[in-house]
Protein 1
Amino acid sequence: MTSTLITGPTRGLGRAATLAMADRPDGERPDLLLVGRAGKALTEIAAEARARGANVHEIGCDLARLADVRAAAAAVRDLLDTRTVRPLRALIANAGHMSADTRVATADGYEKTFAVNYLAHAQLIGDLLGSLTEPARIVLLGSNVYSANLGRRIMGVPAAKWRDPVELARPATGDKNPGLNAAGVAYANAKLAILYYAHELQRRAGSGINVSVFEPGWMPGTGLGREAPPALQAVGRGVARLPGVATPERSGPALASVALDDKWANLRDGAFVVIDKVTEVRPIARDQERERHLWEATARLLERAGTPGGR
């Protein structure tokens, strides 16, 4: 038997995936390492998963602080080294964030959407890559928002506008909030970065670790947009009731399946799974030069954040 780590387990998709894993039968249920912001929500989801039979460890971590991420990785390594939990064979990088103001910086000085969605998970995965027991799976949370199809253009959802990763990590400046369009571009850029990272990670992780990207479908009204204006949040909740819109109750178990089930055992190379179907990404999402450059820039950004006074 094994352990599974999931970030962002307290609400929405992450909560549903956590409970789906806890509901598995004895012999199929992994130990659960829940990495999320310390507090009532994390305590409650851990208690609910335990009530369903899971062996659960809460690891408090603010993903907007890379020092917290490094401490969380150290805590996981300690649990593994002392055999408090079973071998780690799945890591689900689920947590997400969309800042309504791209001027907002994390404690490390990086734009918050890019930092939480991408940099924090690159730090966590890098710190735990050597602690995974093969065969292992890394599942990153992706999104189709990196490319604006007709439907998204009609709705005014912006596509990614890729730039040098160091620029993407830099908060906006000025006295005025750049607005929701800029926030949407920042989110799309972070999700495109995840696709690039997944492809490069697979090249470097070795044959025993499979990397994939999970797209949960369009789920308006979840906690992801909690910083959006109240009126926009209300619209999202209304749209979430429409037929055909994805829900955590459907997509959460699908995410758990990609991380654990035999049917996905050969999924690798950053394969993009939309709920339960492998889907080819658009050409913009495959670019070996961008992927290599992102990897190198990420190493510099993380190293800088780990050096006192480094920024």
Protein 2
Amino acid sequence: MADADAEALAAEQAREQANTGTKEVAESHRFDEAALIAWMQANVEGFSGPLEVRQFKGGQSNPTYQLITPGKKYVLRRKPPGKLLPSAHAVDREFKVISALYPTGFPVAKPYGLCTDDSIIGTWFYIMDMVEGRILWDQSLPQYQPAERNAIFKAKIKTLADLHNTDYEAVGLGDYGKPGNYMGRQVDRWTKQYKASETVHIPEVERLIKWLPQSLPVQDRTSVVHGDYRLDNMIFHPTESRVTAVLDWELGTLGDPMADFTYVLMGWVNGTISTIPDLKAHGIPTIEEAVEHYCAITGRSGIKDLNWFFAYNAFRLVGILQGILGRVRDGTANHPDAANMAPRVLGLAEMSWAYAKKAGAS
């Protein structure tokens, strides 16, 4: 193994150790376990205690717990306690989409129940199956050989294409989002989240807030979109190069599939993949090959407006990370590194404006 690969592997292992597995439930996220048990006995088919509750490490948004019984493990996701931004942490929407997709064979965890009664554990929550497998944190996949890297990336892209090909009306998701003008609504959403969480003035963000709504691309298709589709938001089979569960549907809705796919492509322009000198030798598809693979499955002839979408995706990340900084300000952040997001916000704002200029902004 080359020195660079060894360093990358060590970095991935450190990140994986910090972000995977479970820990004791944080004091600020504890709840009445007896009340949860009573609810599960009434609402989760096949549930039988006793119950042990652990909290998953990592994560920035909805606190997530592992529920362990003698015969089965479950996962509980809840809204965080405390002051919340409007429309954020919609666990009911997460439950809705996985409940619709699960019967189709699309890889999501089996849903068991949704609770919208705050009196049970203090906030809304839902319970789903615990899917065992691999979560891959480092997109360069230093622990694998080139052929398996290629297979993993193609499986990632195919799974997203399969989502975008899903007939959302037929699976009961016709009301999962508003029709049309998805990009306009998204720009407005992340602008509002940024403003609600703003901690410092960033000139590039102000320029983007003005330019993005004036330059929206034409939306030619509507599909279910995940909103945060990346390797560490999915579980791979323990030994096979296939996705067994797509996780974290908090940002899911109906919208322009190009927003989802170009977010995946951000890894080639502003992520670990962009630092790999020879993608072919490494086994990861080039950005052109990734586009070709996706387009072949979805019946597209190509992708337009890439620079606009890169500007938008970076802007959206600015809004997401600024939301975390806002929770630090309000005392509701649930990640020890949340306060370190400020430099990333500034860097993403500068990158977003650079792509905006490539797309014609001035």
Protein 3
Amino acid sequence: MLLLDKSFYKKDKLLGLLPISFGLISGIAVFYFLYFFEAYGIQKGVSYSGHSHLFRSISFGVLTFTYLFFLESYVKPRFQVITLSKQFYWYLSLIVIGNQLIFLLFNFFWNWQEWNIDAYLLIQKEFPLMMFFPLSFYLIIQVFSKEKEIKLSTYLFLKSDNDKDQLKVKMEDFLCAMSSGNYITITYKSNGIVKEHLIRKTLKNLEEELKNYPTIKRSHRSYLVNTSNIQLVKQIKGKFYLEILELMIPISKQYQRTFI
């Protein structure tokens, strides 16, 4: 049986809501500045395209929400934006992309009559200013969430199928599990030392219990590994192996796409 700290799931859900919150706050901020403070020099009357001031303000807000939510949720994870320098360039690029999208939508409403350097520079100046508070607020929440996440202790309570044996392991200390018939050998770290524990359990049952944790993956019909602890992928005589501390774990052909 696998038991996880409930606070882990709560935190995981909160982290998943961050991109939505960022998009919503930013979209509302853009709408607010446009509708109430007439940013971009927006006119209150009907545009050349026949759209009202309210409709145009909402449209700019929706555009801001959509592109920020999409890029933050689906594009950012692919680039592993972890270091401070990468984060700086990532959020700078979000502002630059937003500037161009806003300028295009602005011209759509005015039948491309504002396709000039003055209108372009106005938006390049005002959009970053409008994004200052939403982005600052979002970054503060991210920092706070990561600090809380570090403090969480997530444990696995691994029990044998007959409930006569169990092992309590921190998730980050779990290295791999190797199958041998109806038994599995759990390899884990304890105070910096690699240890093993044999329990009566099938690898299939363990995999089913760990299915909700995305870093635990099968590399071979006899192995489950914690991908967060992989140090290297090696090819030796045409065969691939995962290096986790001093362990060399094989990768079978059907699972190579996961790791290579």
